[in-house]
Structure formats: structure tokens, C-alpha cells
Write a structure and sequence with these properties.
The protein is about 55% helix and about 10% strand. By secondary structure, the chain is of the alpha+beta class. It has three domains: about 90 residues; about 60 residues; about 130 residues, Up-down Bundle (Four Helix Bundle (Hemerythrin (Met), subunit A)). It has a five-stranded antiparallel β-sheet with strand order 1-2-3-5-4. A two-stranded antiparallel sheet has the order 6-7. Strand 4 and strand 5 form a beta hairpin. Helix 6 packs antiparallel against helix 7. The longest helix has 21 residues. It is elongated and about 75 Å long. The protein starts with 7 loop residues before the first strand and ends with a helix. The structure holds a DNA duplex (20 and 20 nucleotides).
DNA sequence: AGGATATGAGCGAGCTGTTC
DNA sequence: GAACAGCTCGCTCATATCCT
């Protein structure tokens, strides 16, 4: 394993200590001692877990162990085995430790942070190189966490979104640096009327009830609020459309429904459904919006901070330009 | 119900090998 | 030889499962 000149270091902070999580050669590494520290167990415990993991064939030793030269406390240089994130998480599962759970939560939260607000990492301007690193880190963590499937359903959805759209990050960054024009998009042909929306929701509801995925409460709403959202999307200012392109309109429709949650139940599903209906009405089909990414997108919007609305809207519009 | 047994997780001592 | 990394062994403790 060749040494990386500038290893990226994430710091997992704990109340009384912290661990430097090294990111070298596109993966994350911890030594046996660091894992012992992380999970608050004796080294022998970690050692035995590691052996069991490899013995039982859960992971293959050669594919997860790297040998780095490390300077120890005595200033001497030792060759120390480092274990990648897959292994760390596997050990975390076996170790009966609150720290193990905390570490997994931290890793998941870190991903969300990157996605929702990380674009302005510490308010610093992101260089092209820095961006590449963030993308690498995201891909690595997301892939590993996904393959370990230790995260809850919500987390898994957010992760799949990250994976699908890590490529769009550079576009988002360029936005912030005013290097990229807002895509012009196409003008919308016709608005979505309340009656059309109502009919669509009704159809969706009966379908969902048939497969027992919706309660009778699903889709109930105050008419005025939904009409208000549909009107907002189409609103004009001094004769000009506030959201000129159909992409912007669709993005706002999706955002408003999920964020304003006018429906007693099923806002994310209805929002996504109306989003697609709106696009279909404009004669637009987008291969990039598959089922999984739509679910993820809806979850991301629901989870996002309202102050990040513009970023989320940009993200959605960017997805159009990629398809 | 409750005693016996099995399993898994933890700790520490002590061992080997590495590096200087 | 000293300090360190990592492994094995024997022990304890907690929990789960089985048996009467």
C-alpha cells in the first residue's frame, strides 16, 4: 500500500476523546488500537472479533487489510495493519458498545451534513480538488454504509440519492461561484388545475388502498391550500412568470407540497406523483427520475432545512439538465 | 418456575514477532 | 533489551435456550 501524501482526515469527536479517521487511497482506515479506543474495548477483544470476521468469511482479510508504516509513541516506525470501513463497521456490530451505535449515527449524519449544507463547507470556497475529495468521500461512505445496510430505511434512501447525484455536485458548486447560468429550460405549456390534481390523487389513493399502503386519511386536504400551491407555481409578477421554465415550476411544485404538507397523510407520495403528472402534462419524460431517486428526493426535501430551499430547488433543476 | 447448559462478549496475562 | 503490535489462553459474567 503506497502512502498517500495528503491523507484526508475526518475527526469523529466524542465527549472525552476523538479519533482521527484516515481517508487514504479512497477508503477509510483504522488500526486495531484505534478500534479498541473507538469502541472502548480491550485490544484483545477487537483482535478476536477481527479473526472471527475473517474466519467466518464475512469479509476477506486481504481485501480489507492494509499495512501502513506508522510512527508510534516511541518515535519508532512500525508496520501496522489498518482495517477499512467495512471491517470497522463489522466489528462495531459485534462489539456490544454504545460507541459502535454512536459511530454509525455519526457516519450517517456526516453524509446528510455534506449533502444538505456541506456545499459551503465552513464557508470556504471549494476548489476543484477539494470538491473531488468530497465526492470521493461521499461515494466511499455511501457505498460502504449501503452495503452494510446498517442504516434505517430513511438513511438508505438519502444515501442512494447521494450516490446517484454525487456527479451533480460540481454543478451545484458552480452555481455558487456564478460560473454556471441557471438553465433556461423550456416554457411550460399549461398549468396543472386543481381538478386534475384531485382526480390524480383519487386514483393514487384507490391504488394504494388496494395494496393496503394507504389509510382512508390519505390525501385529505383543505382545498384552498392545495389551490394556493398550484397557483404559487404559476404566479406572475408584472406580467412575467415568477418561475419561467417548466423545470422551475415542477421543482417548486414538488417542494411546496412536501414542505407545506397540505395533506393529512401522504405528502411525499402525492408531491412526487403530482410532480410527475405535471411533467407528463408538459410532454416531458425524464429517465433520470427513477423510482428510487424520486423517493430519495422526496425524503431529502422533507428532511432539509427551510433555509436551504434555494439549494434544494437548484438541485432538482440540475437533475433535469443532466437527463 | 427454576435449575442446567450453551453461547457470546469481556478482561488480563503472557507469549511471539518487529523495530530501533 | 525496551517498547510496541498483535495473538492466544483461561477465566468471568450475562443472556438465551433447553429440560425437568
Amino acid at each position: 500500500m503506497e502512502a498517500d501524501k495528503s491523507p484526508q482526515i475526518l475527526i469523529y469527536k466524542m465527549k472525552d476523546a476523538h479519533i482521527d479517521v484516515q481517508i487514504k487511497s479512497e477508503t477509510v482506515w483504522l488500526s486495531l488500537s484505534q478500534m479498541a479506543q473507538l469502541f472502548e474495548r480491550d485490544k484483545s477483544v477487537i483482535s478476536r472479533h477481527l479473526n472471527n470476521i475473517f474466519k467466518e468469511g464475512e469479509l476477506e482479510r486481504k481485501s480489507v487489510v492494509a499495512n501502513f508504516a506508522t510512527t508510534a509513541a516511541d518515535r519508532k516506525i512500525y508496520k501496522v495493519d489498518y482495517y477499512n470501513l467495512d471491517t470497522i463497521i463489522s466489528v462495531g456490530y459485534r462489539v456490544n458498545s454504545k460507541r459502535g451505535i454512536q459511530f454509525r449515527q455519526w457516519a450517517t449524519q456526516k453524509l446528510k451534513d455534506y449533502l444538505i449544507q456541506g456545499y459551503s463547507l465552513n464557508q470556504q470556497k471549494i476548489t476543484h480538488e477539494g470538491l473531488k475529495k468530497v465526492q470521493k468521500t461521499l461515494n466511499l461512505l455511501a457505498k460502504t454504509l449501503q452495503s452494510q445496510s446498517f442504516i434505517d430505511e430513511k438513511g438508505a434512501d438519502v444515501l442512494s440519492l447521494i450516490l446517484s447525484y454525487s456527479k451533480t455536485w460540481s454543478l451545484l458548486f458552480k452555481y455558487d461561484e456564478n460560473e454556471l447560468e441557471i438553465p433556461k429550460g423550456f416554457p411550460a405549456k399549461s398549468a396543472l388545475t386543481y381538478e386534475e390534481a384531485l382526480e390524480a390523487i383519487h386514483d393514487l389513493k384507490s391504488q394504494l388502498i388496494e395494496c393496503e399502503e394507504a389509510s382512508p386519511l390519505f390525501g385529505q386536504h383543505p382545498r384552498k391550500q392545495v389551490e394556493g400551491i398550484l397557483g404559487n407555481v404559476e404566479q406572475t409578477f408584472e406580467g412575467q412568470s415568477l418561475y419561467p421554465s417548466l423545470q422551475e415550476k415542477a421543482a417548486h411544485l414538488l417542494y411546496f407540497i412536501i414542505k407545506d404538507h397540505p395533506f393529512s397523510d401522504g405528502n411525499k407520495r402525492i408531491g412526487t406523483f403530482l410532480f410527475l403528472l405535471y411533467l407528463r402534462k408538459q410532454g416531458v419524460t425524464l429517465t433520470i427520475f427513477n423510482n428510487a431517486t424520486l423517493v430519495s428526493l422526496a425524503l431529502l426535501i422533507a428532511e432539509s432545512n427551510p433555509t436551504d430551499k434555494e439549494i434544494i430547488i437548484r438541485l432538482i433543476i440540475n437533475l433535469f439538465t443532466l437527463s
